[in-house]
Specification:
CATH class of the largest domain: Mainly Beta
CATH superfamily of the largest domain: Nucleic acid-binding proteins
Strand order of the largest sheet: 1-2-3-5-4
Structural class: alpha+beta
Number of helices: 2
Mean pLDDT: 77
Shape: elongated
CATH architecture of the largest domain: Beta Barrel
Radius of gyration: 26 Å
Amino acid sequence: MILLKEEFFIKKEVVVGSILEGVITGITKFGAFVELPGGITGLVHISEIADEYVKDIHDLFKKADQVKVKVLTVENNGKIGLSIRQAVEGFSPNKRGSNHKMVAVNKASFEDKMNRFLKDSDERLLDLKRNTESKRGGRGSFREAF
């Protein structure tokens, strides 16, 4: 395999462990594609977006956003694995959820979550009770008349 001069410099710039600036070119349910300097595209898997659980990447980023990424892998077939969460200063690989503020996450208290759960649960039980009573022949059913 013969590399052109431009390809050599691009490949040399994308080294595992280096931190680069890039632009998000596409977002899927499993990750975000980031264009690096030199026109090379890499993938940031959804697990490498933030320290917190990310359900939808669209909540945090949109196309054409500038991001700082860390190169995790460069495979022979041209695939490049990237990480946004590891590119942030203060990242510690053995400690998820470090002190840095990368994204705003809804931090409801335990009591708020529990109250919301109980309210939803009560509403569902009430709906279920209404549906099953009418099917079992509750008040005023035809069977009770005889």
